[in-house]
Specification:
- There is one protein chain.
- The protein is built from 9 helices and 11 strands.
- By secondary structure, it is α+β, with helices and mostly antiparallel strands.
- Strands 4-10-9-8-5-6-7-11 form an 8-stranded mixed β-sheet, with helices on both faces.
- The protein has 2 domains: about 1-75, Arc Repressor Mutant, subunit A (Orthogonal Bundle); about 110-250, 2-Layer Sandwich (Endonuclease, Chain A).
- The radius of gyration is 32 Å and the shape is elongated.
- The longest helix has about 30 residues, at about 75-105.
Length: about 260
């Protein structure tokens, strides 16, 4: 009987449903009490299993006087119906997934370059004001952040704020908790990134807001520039990866500073 039960469980039946069905399969027609006596499934659980099996179309109730008697439905018809239902569910999910891919591909990605300090400052204020849950800042240049981002403490009271800094940063440099990345992820902190065409933009700060919008601030050929993008679905994946690999920066976790008096 156990092999019978395991086979039924493999198609989604519970232990009790499989035991009740196995007994009914052998008896052809039986009452709940008879199935309880043979299967040893508690009486209330037998009724529960029968209700589920009837709903799934495996068993039916005989129309006759006296205690309810149950029987199994025709096996071929039952499994043909289950195959059809499963196929319809699979088709529905497949169509849904295709529709989501189409939606993401067709959704426009807003991205543009900011050419001056005023435009960059305006976008900074906009991101700080609009953010509802979380901001992740990757600080490539601590001096820039110290000079230009003056409202860190107030911002940290409004949302979850993660300031990721180079590992040699003094933990007391900023008025909020700072984090460093795991050593194997230090490329995320690199201030320079060669694009292969001879230019080397120098990054100063990267901001990810609510895992949707990104602002990259830096310099190119001595000019301050910013790159803003909104609604980028890949930002969520990147931020989740970053936050899994941060370490709180403290006096204990920061590298030992060289002695300046020597």
């Amino acid at each position: 009987m156990q092999e019978f039960v395991e086979k039924l469980k493999s198609i989604g039946m519970t232990e009790n449903e499989a035991k009740v069905y196995a007994v009914l399969f052998e008896l052809k027609v039986a009452t709940a009490r008879e199935m309880h006596d043979i299967s040893k499934v508690p009486r209330n659980k037998v009724y529960e299993a029968l209700a589920n099996l009837e709903e799934k179309g495996f068993v039916g109730t005989a129309e006759e006087a006296g205690p309810s008697r149950f029987f199994i439905h025709d096996i071929t018809k039952t499994f043909n119906r289950l195959r059809l239902e499963n196929l319809e569910r699979l088709n529905d999910v497949e169509q849904y997934l295709h529709s989501r891919i189409t939606f993401q591909h067709n959704r426009p990605l807003l991205s543009y370059t900011l050419q001056n300090t005023w435009a960059i400052d305006s976008h900074l204020r906009m991101m700080f004001n609009r953010s509802k849950k979380e901001i992740v800042m990757i600080c490539h240049d601590t001096a820039y952040v110290k000079k230009h981002i003056w409202n860190l403490k107030n911002l940290s009271k409004k949302i979850d704020l993660y300031l990721i800094v180079p590992e040699d940063t003094d933990p007391d440099m900023f008025p909020i908790r700072c984090y460093k990345l795991q050593p194997e992820m230090k490329e995320f902190m690199d201030a320079r990134n060669t694009d292969g065409f001879g230019t080397e933009p120098e990054f100063q700060l990267t901001i990810h807001a609510d895992r949707q919008d990104t602002l990259i601030i830096g310099k190119l050929d001595g000019r301050e520039i910013g790159i803003f993008s909104a609604g980028n679905p890949s930002v969520s994946i990147l931020v989740k990866y970053l936050l899994k690999n941060i370490i709180l920066l403290t006096k204990e976790t920061a590298p030992e500073q060289p002695d300046q008096t020597a």
